[in-house]
Amino acid sequence: MDWNLILEVYAWSITIYMVTVIVFYTIILFFSMLQIRKEYRLNRTEPYEDYMDESFTRPVSIIVPAYNEEAGVVQSVRSLLTINYPQFEIIVVNDGSKDRTLLMMMEQYEMVKVNKIVRKQLETEEVQAIYQSKTLPNLYVIDKKNGGKADALNAGLNFAHYPYFCSLDGDSVLENDAFLKVMKPIIDSGEEVIASGGSVRIANGCDIRNGNLVKIGLSNSPIVVMQVIEYLRAFLMGRIGLSRHNLLLIISGAFGVFSKHWVIESGGYKRNTVGEDMELVVRLHRIIKEKGLNKRIVYVPDPVCWTEVPESFGVLRSQRRRWHKGLFESLWRHRKLTLNPKYGSIGLVSIPYFWLIEFLGPIVELSGYVFIIFSLFAGGVYIEFAILLFLLSALYGSIFSMASVLLEEWSLRKYPKVLDIIKLFLYALTETMWYRPLTVLWRCEGIWQIIRRDHSWGDMKRKGVSK
Amino acid sequence: MLTTELSVLSVLMIFVVTLLTVLLGYLLIRKARENKVRKRINNYKEKYRVPVYDYLSSGEVTRLIEPIGKDRKLAIEELLRDFSDILEGEETRLNLSNYAERHLSELYRENLTSRQWSNRMNTLYYIEDFYMKNLEADVQKEILDNLASSKDEIIQSLCVLARFNSPKFKEYIELKHEELLEFDLRNILRRVEEEQLDYLIDRFENYSLNLQCAILERISQLKNLEYVTFLESTFEKNSGEVKLRALKTLANLGYVEDITRYMPLCDSPVWQERMLVAKLFKMLQDNRTISCLKKLLHDEYWWVRQQAGDTIASFPNGNEILIEVIEQSQDNYAKDMAREWLNKGVLT
Prior knowledge:
Chain B: The chain crosses the membrane at residues 6-29. Chain A is of the alpha/beta class. Chain A has helices at residues 3-38, 46-49, 73-81, 101-109, 149-159, 178-188, 222-243, 260-265, 276-290, 313-333, 344-359, 361-378, 381-410, 418-429, 435-452, and strands at residues 60-66, 88-95, 111-114, 127-133, 139-144, 164-167, 172-174, 193-202, 207-209, 212-215, 256-259, 296-307. Chain A contains 15 helices and 12 strands. In chain A, α1 crosses α12 (361-378), α9 runs parallel beside α10 (313-333) and α12 (361-378) crosses α15. By secondary structure, chain B is an all-alpha fold. Chain B has 17 helices and no strands. Chain B has helices at 3-58, 70-86, 90-112, 117-129, 136-144, 151-163, 169-176, 182-189, 194-202, 209-222, 228-237, 240-253, 271-284, 290-296, 302-314, 318-328, 332-347.
């Protein structure tokens, strides 16, 4: 075999791959633009006023799984109590915490033990007690043996009284109108929509007091700014473009409302999964297709939830590895869907997209970087290939990010200062140089861990978003 | 060997980057300018706040509150929006709409023909909020008669006509109701008064299921006992969803002519009917219903048990009945529900 030929084929494959991805992203960007622009400057409160009437909305159960959250749980609940929605209940599930999580709740909200028999529609670890607040009858705490987040959510689901539920992490802050915004498509569609997700933004750098967002700001830490751009890009571009055609696969763990009926019907959250939320959404899609239901999963571009992201390389690294493993698990568990025409556009477009671009993308990109470094030493024709690859990766790293920043400023405009936009734009420009290669490397490490069957999850350290 | 590809790509890159930078420049200038305009509008708002408030409460026109130019008008619009949420009183409302009609009509007429969907939508919201009756004809012409209008615009326009008690409302709702969801129709009918509602009730049979349900919902909100005869006959004559909704409305009104006609619902195969009859019994407070309610407390559906518990607890001797169930029943779910309602009585 001729080495030159092999290298050339290698370089060309990467090139073709990248061009395909760029074309795909461009199409999605275009759809997102149309969708977002339509609602540009629509009054943000008027459309929801009518939904505040109790007889119109559907009540929602908010499930807050808590494992060793003594620092934040009281704050989270307090912020939830102030949300603007006619009828809801809060169910905190204490998943066998080893700290004072339960005690904090008991003291703060005067919880009393109630005798309730719960219909066990989903198998969970044993529930030890159920408490109800004396002062706030819609606040419950379920105390159960430790079984992981999915198990805690299932216990909450068994208990929930209302037809819709949402799961919320302790490190997230909701906008006041979050539920109105996310429930609107469900109500508007006459309940044809069975799950609805909202856009997630980054809380680091924002001013949050008592669990309420006071002022939107941008963090000074480069690694956070890069994540802000990444979220903007993922949410503004990817999810809206995909949502238009019922292709949406992920409702972020940070914020989504689901129909309880359909989630229980599909078996609840799967235990021992890293990405239980994505897995659930894939499963719902699968059930919709298998039963031939006329149901949809949608996504609302309006930011409704602010979440804390890692501020150090170490934590970010383990988060990215974990996400990548979660992605793989969901795709692998439902591999039957891949390229299966029975599942329509989900099987033919969505799943292949996640396999080829989201999951395998990092490997191709990494080999591109390896090639670039190699060619610096080899010289000759390889330099040209290297430049070609570099330009392409700049196109799909930096340029799409820059476009997302502009799309945000063109439509939703959450950042008030001119300087913020300049900062975001310039950081986006540098993405290909450092941030992108790093995340690619981390995601490849995730793949490596899957191959080695390493199941360590890595923990996220919480600083607490609220002051 | 790659020179063509490279040069094409480089040119493309330079082009895209230039384009993005130009766009950035444009957006930044726009942002800076809008921040400035925003500041100006906020200043105007402060300047006008007190005089406009005085005008709204007294009705005396002064030169102070004659806005000239677009920024001032926008400031006024925002002020009126703030005020319309908090002000009460017939006269104040009238002053507010007079004022809006005088200064904002021209701007809104223009907005209704705007190419921007969100602009048209916002304008429709404000026309309703400010009760600008003089724009009614424009709403009909520009939105309702316009085949290109979106569903949201149609709905909001119908809301406007309903709120204004417009004679044209009946015509348009009959024309448009088949394409609207029940939720939308309920939302529109929420604004309708008895006179318009009577017209719709007379022609009830001709309408789509969605509109029928919406009408029943409106009756339920009005809580007017005059409609009981209509509801009872609708309940008798229909089946399925309409029957159920009629029963729901009766349960909400809490009145029926003859209670014995509803007793058999205790054994209805439809759980919603069992729940609603339990709810109906809460208002009627008739001892003849107790045996039925005890049975419903043992129902397989949580919602039925919940409602039965609620109703029993509302009876004067409710606690005794609940205690009896707790002591004698074999059914854990029924006992649980009884205990829960017993506790609620203690806690509150």
